[in-house]
Amino acid sequence: MGGTKSALRALKEIGLGTVNGMIDKWRRWALVSVLVAENLALLTVWGIARWRQQGVTPVERGKQVAERLGCFTCHGPGGIRGITFAKKPRFDCPPWDGGTAMMYVHDESELAEWILDGAPKALRETASYQREQKERLVRMPAYRGLLSDDELRDLVAYWKAIAEWQMPPDDPQAAKGYEVAKASGCFSCHGPLGRGSPPNPGSFKGYIPAWDSADFEELVRDEAELEQWILDGVSERFRNNPAAQFFLRRATIKMLAYRNYLSRDELEALKAYIRWLRQRTGSSSDGSEKNLSGGDGR
To answer: Domain 172-281 belongs to what architecture?
Structure first.
């Protein structure tokens, strides 16, 4: 009798051990599954963020670099205000727009020296500059070592757009379109010269597409679609696409409809400017930029 009880007790212990072992295995499997799912979710979020950032233009990235470096502290919001000293105007910190910057910058290499070293080498070596620096209330900082080569290129791209470098275009029709865009508020949403990609919460990629970006090619297939976007705020193709409509309705900032605002001549000029811009800057978002020949030819 005692042997039977011992045998039954042993069987129970064996069974209990088996069950506990299975539970431990399931726990380990569940933990691994949760970790895998979390990593996949993180990779998905990272991938979407990377995909969205691919369309952000050098001009917009340059604005972000300027914000990070504190450029707008002295040059004003967006670089368009600056600091004035009523008693000593020659000590003013100039804005980047309005043509003032052209008094200080003659080419891109000189602009890079201003950013990296606080002033071009040829200027820093003059006695008058050295004497003036001792008197100035605000001195241009030197950012060498604080930004990468790519960030420098982006910052230069933003400065050129804000300063309207080499504008207006050398093509008369494009030059007229440039003025139409300025007068119609286009650059307020599409960024300086139409080359920015400012945030737009709720939109498909989270920003307003630039006219010289790769996104433009996805939105505008031909001249007819470009005209539809300008006049009606949306193309027929996107109006009839339920998925596109979902994101267009969700976007915080909507495309304006200029049908009752622009004349036919103004519309044609605006399209000419957009064509001109895309031909001279390309449609990539990798930071490359062709020369914008126009204005005084600098």
So the answer is: Orthogonal Bundle (1.10)
